[in-house]
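queue> pop job 88
queue> type: inverse folding (structure -> sequence)
queue> payload:
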């Protein structure tokens, strides 16, 4: 191979002439532009990632207790509020629903909330899992894969539910069922009951989620 051919890209020699130089120049320009765009893209990707380490005002406030007016909740109804980025259910149970809780225990995986995955406040380690039998306060996130169960308050046979269903919650993703105290039934994918957050009552109509103390009204 001639010396000229050895110096030429691809071994094509000087046949490319000035056209080859133009092509080579365009190629270098394209590579430079591509690298520049890639660098900008890298910065654009990194900024949101790094920014996620700096908590927003909303994130800082998310851990604060939430005060809720529950005076308007009627028996048999549910109110959902947000606490620490989680949906928290406040269910006002009817007398019949409260009574039905006592009949579920033999069918439940953890009727007394003894498992430790979601430590239950001492005042909620009862058949009602609450300070007041009338109200259930629980985080509406299934302990299996984090899905959100749906209400199935009406008793009786229904799709995906047993004939003796007394009312509660159904996770449609994998079929886990919970009673109206958030207790999971046996032989279901969910390993634990629904989480009960710290809570207390300032009055009969004002509930605080995320805080409790010895002075809290039971």
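queue> result:
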């Amino acid at each position: 191979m001639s010396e000229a051919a050895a110096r030429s890209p691809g071994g094509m020699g000087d046949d490319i002439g000035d056209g080859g130089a133009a092509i080579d120049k365009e190629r270098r320009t394209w590579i430079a532009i591509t690298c520049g765009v890639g660098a900008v893209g890298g910065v654009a990707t990194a900024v949101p990632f790094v920014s996620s380490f700096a908590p927003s005002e909303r994130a800082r406030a998310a851990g604060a207790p939430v005060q809720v007016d529950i005076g308007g909740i009627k028996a048999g109804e549910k109110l959902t509020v947000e606490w620490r980025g989680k949906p928290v259910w406040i269910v006002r149970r009817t007398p019949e629903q409260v009574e039905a809780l006592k009949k579920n225990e033999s069918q439940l995986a953890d009727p007394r909330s003894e498992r430790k995955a979601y430590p239950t406040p001492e005042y909620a380690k009862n058949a009602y899992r609450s300070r007041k039998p009338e109200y259930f306060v629980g985080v509406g996130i299934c302990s299996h894969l984090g899905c959100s169960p749906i209400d199935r308050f009406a008793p009786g046979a229904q799709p995906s539910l047993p004939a003796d269903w007394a009312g509660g919650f159904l996770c449609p993703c994998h079929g886990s069922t919970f009673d109206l105290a958030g207790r999971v039934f046996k032989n279901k994918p969910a390993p634990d009951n629904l989480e009960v957050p710290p809570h207390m009552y300032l009055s009969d109509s004002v509930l605080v989620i995320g805080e409790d103390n010895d002075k809290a009204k039971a």
